[in-house]
Amino acid sequence: MTAIESPCILVCSIDMKTGYCFGCGRTREEISGWIGMTPEHRREIMAELPARLETVERRPRRETRRARMARERGMA
């Protein structure tokens, strides 16, 4: 069995504005259908991913509990 090439970097979250994954740039449909695609089709999609990722707004980092507590103390 051969490994299937994938752009996945395990940052699986979809940007609601563009519909692209924040990590790899694929759509939900592309992610779910990846295994069934031909290698050529996968390569075509992967060639588009850098341009797609340029359109995705980077998600803000999640606020840690420590940062939230410090911010709340500053407001009081």
From TrEMBL:
Stored Pfam families: DUF1289
InterPro entries: DUF1289 (IPR010710)
Residue numbers spanned by region Disordered: 57-76
Domain of life: Bacteria
PANTHER family from the UniProt entry: DUF1289 DOMAIN-CONTAINING PROTEIN (PTHR35175)
Official protein name in the record: Fe-S protein YdhL (DUF1289 family)
Species annotation: Pseudaminobacter salicylatoxidans
